Amino acid sequence: MTATKGLEGIVATTSSISSIVDGVLTYRGYNIDDLAEHASFEEVAYLLWFGKLPNADELKSLRKSLSDYAPIPSDLVAQIKLYPKNMSTMAALRSAISALGLYDEQADEMTAEANENKAVKLQAQLPTIVAAIARIREGKEPVAPKEGASIAENFLYMLTGEEPSDTAVKALDQALVLHADHELNASTFAARVTVATLSDIYSGVTSAIGALKGPLHGGANEAVMKMLNEIGTPDRLEAAIQEKLNNREKIMGFGHRVYKNGDPRAKHLQKMSKELGDMNNDTRLYDMSVKIEELVTGQKGLKPNVDFYSASVYTQLGIEHELFTPIFAISRVSGWTAHILEQLADNRIIRPRAEYTGPTEQKYISVELR
Ligand code: ACO
């Protein structure tokens, strides 16, 4: 038995949800470029869960369910208010989603129908929880979800209590489409491993959130913004990046385990970042990002991943950086739950082996003699 570090190149499951072949990402066979251009996030969530694009009635019915399920239990809001005020948003989200399962009487029902229903509920309630966490951290009361609004519109509305602009809704909706699923990424794998023990969907999503939180995965978008803030002004950029490269530090938002010639999602976020900058008459963040890309790609050959330009996009939408990774979760919960449904439809416990590298032939010595 020989281990492969980081399971690189290991094919651990079959899946018909999303694929990456020769650098092209598809959801259920639809190219991500096409979906990013034309589809709403709700259509994409339906596609991931049910394997086909919804017709008009199916989409209407999904939108209604998402809207009906969006409010969260008041006891959960009370609980979030007890979390420390300086809470990490991802740690708070992980705790709140775990707690959410306690309020769902269906939590341990394992029929496909019950799990599909819980997938929709989780998709509906996760944005409400993120917005509540954001407001409670600032000492404000949560804003109740707006009936009939899309996930993107509702989330932006719940953050501020004000109607978001069409541009902001469109940009966030497209970002949600781009982040919705990504084959066997670390958080999706964590979700599948958890439910493959026949544990419940809330446990699966809680595991996934824990995995997404790390800066090598979803946490990278927050780390990109921290880096941009630390650099501060364009005149300091070249020296700051050069120092990181000389010190062999990782530049957040660059590199990918699977994409070696560029992440197909990054160009959409780059375009969005430029458009928002042009619209706001302030392209400083976009210009700095482009300069960083030039330096990192030029010197290391590493290309930006989905997290790199999403940092400047979200900042230009007026969103604080502690919410970037939770926004990733708002989108990816569609993919996590689709994978959970797929795992449970044809389940076998996931239990690989480890290559043992520790000592052997040890003789037990009683504690007095040690
Ligand atoms: N900055 C500088 N060097 C890098 C970077 C980076 N961002 N990414 C990889 N490298 C270097 C590594 O140091 C390594 O160099 P070495 O061979 O001289 O030691 C080489 O490129 C290969 O990198 P690995 O870390 O082995 O690549 P791996 O496939 O294990 O990791 C990962 C992929 C985690 C994405 C890595 O590129 C990274 O840490 N990037 C920064 C964090 C990030 O942006 N994560 C988000 C990924 S996308 C997502 O999860 C949504």
From TrEMBL:
Q: In which pathway does it act?
A: Carbohydrate metabolism; tricarboxylic acid cycle; isocitrate from oxaloacetate: step 1/2
Residues the record marks as active site: 256, 307
Q: Which organism is it from?
A: Paenibacillus amylolyticus
- What does the sequence similarity comment in the record state about its family? Belongs to the citrate synthase family.
Q: Which PANTHER family match?
A: CITRATE SYNTHASE, CITRATE SYNTHASE, PEROXISOMAL
NCBIfam families assigned: cit_synth_II, PRK14034.1
Q: Which domain of life is it from?
A: Bacteria
Q: Which Pfam families match?
A: Citrate_synt (PF00285)
| Gene Ontology molecular function terms on file | citrate synthase activity
A single GO BP term for this record reads: carbohydrate metabolic process
The protein's name: Citrate synthase
**Any one Gene Ontology cellular component term annotated for this protein:** cytosol
Reaction it catalyzes: oxaloacetate + acetyl-CoA + H2O = citrate + CoA + H(+)
Record keyword Acyltransferase present: yes
Keywords associated with the record: Acyltransferase, Transferase, Tricarboxylic acid cycle
